[in-house]
Write a structure and sequence with these properties.
8-stranded mixed sheet; ATP binding; aa-tRNA-synth_II/BPL/LPL; ligase; nucleotide-binding; aminoacyl-trna synthetase
Length: 408
């Protein structure tokens, strides 16, 4: 290429006055967009780039701005960013497709929920996988809901024979944010009648339905940033090849694999083997690659998961639960619940959790015993996989990171 060659590409309008030089090549940045028709007959805005075969123009288009690092200027810059326009579209599609899936395909009922709770689903006891967010509200000590699982279990008992209940909204956690964790994230959760296999089957169908929706509505935009949509079609192929399921492997099977290294697993409580083991992100990603893009990890050590997961058998060593691994790691947590009040009380004692705070939970089982299973998916992690991106903090349209003020 001659040193005077000019490349034009589109970036946010905030970059319009900037000129960038690459090895003597001048790159003009222009805030223009172009409407390109989609396969479904609709139209999708796509950043316009002239001479896309030039690697500098392509790189400029695909750049993901780390706007959350500068919260004081986040909103004004996000309003001019094609990345955040794309995220807005993907999140809207995922929300509406989720409602369609649960309501029309499965006949589940939606539960409108409060933002506070007195019974967090990740209590500060053995197996807790997150920190609760407590606050004082009108003189009452309470928590921001970290999950709506418990009230979804309640909802199933409001109507005899209801196949399932679901919710889409925000969950709050207290741990420090990083590339795979958010303090406030969008949570799609459901609770359904049946065992773990039933819950896994519904979760599989959900993942497939959302993947198909992304391909149908946003194929062109995904290709701009991810460079491909082959990971989406490969996931659908993996599902079909496994008889409308995904590969499954137990924790014990994983820990016996020759590929496992010391940095792929850890003790749930550091230095305390008796409290069980879990995989690290590196271990999860090894499994994702080994099984062709996704898999279920099942039968975790019970003391490494919350008390409400049912036991696999009378030894009380293993939990009737499963994590779906995709992209960055775990994106779905699924588990079968204790049926009786006695089983739940035994598990609370086993995990050293005060049963007084969960009296209503055990009383509910005393009144109505049901075999139910539930799961939840963090949508930012799922969309990270869709975009082949490596940081969930770039997915949020409205960042809410621990200790950081960000408007609006």
């Amino acid at each position: 290429m001659a040193p005077s060659a000019t490349i034009e590409a589109t970036l946010p309008a905030s970059y319009a006055q900037k000129t960038i030089f690459f090895s003597g090549t001048k790159l003009h940045l222009k805030p223009e967009v172009k409407e390109i028709p989609q396969e479904n007959g609709g139209k999708e805005e796509l950043p316009k780039a002239i001479k896309l075969n030039n690697r500098f123009a392509v790189s400029a288009m695909k750049a993901v701005p780390k706007l959350w690092k500068n919260p004081s200027s986040f909103a004004m810059n996000a309003l001019q960013s094609p990345w955040y326009t794309t995220m807005f579209g993907l999140q809207s599609t995922l929300f509406h497709s989720s409602i369609d899936f649960f309501r029309h395909d499965l006949g589940y009922k939606y539960l409108v929920v409060p933002v506070t709770t007195s019974s967090i689903s990740s209590p500060m006891g053995l197996g807790s996988d997150s920190q609760p967010v407590s606050l004082e509200l009108a003189g009452l000590q309470t928590y921001l809901a970290d999950s709506q699982q418990f009230v979804l279990e309640y909802a199933l008992r409001l109507e005899d024979g209801l196949p399932g209940s679901y919710y889409v909204g925000t969950s709050c956690r207290g741990e420090d944010p990083d590339s795979t964790h958010l303090n406030q994230f969008c949570h799609v959760e459901c609770e359904l009648l049946g065992g773990l296999a039933d819950g896994v089957a519904v979760a599989n169908r959900y993942v497939v339905a959302m993947t198909q929706a992304m391909l149908r509505e946003h194929k062109t935009k995904i290709e701009v940033y991810a460079g491909t949509t082959s990971h989406l079609t490969q996931l659908l192929d993996l599902y079909r090849k496994h008889n409308n399921s995904f590969p499954m492997v137990t924790l014990e099977e994983v820990l016996a694999m020759p590929e496992i290294t010391d940095d792929m697993w850890q003790y749930a409580v550091e230095g305390e083997p008796r409290w069980g083991r879990s995989l690290t992100r590196k271990g999860e990603r090894m499994l994702i690659e080994k099984f062709g893009g996704a898999c279920w990890l099942t039968e975790m050590d019970h003391l490494s998961v919350p008390f409400y997961q049912a036991y696999t058998d009378g030894t009380k060593r293993k939990g009737q639960c499963a994590d779906f691994l995709l992209g960055l790691g775990e994106v779905i947590g699924c588990g079968n619940r204790h049926v009786s009040a006695e089983q739940a009380l035994e598990a609370l004692e086993h995990h050293e959790v005060d049963p007084a705070e969960y009296k209503w939970y055990t009383d509910m089982r005393q009144l109505k015993e049901l075999n139910t299973t539930g799961w939840g998916i963090g949508t930012e992690r799922f969309l990270c996989w869709v975009m082949q991106h490596d940081d969930v903090r770039d997915i949020q349209l409205l960042p809410r990171l621990k200790g950081v003020a960000c408007a609006p």
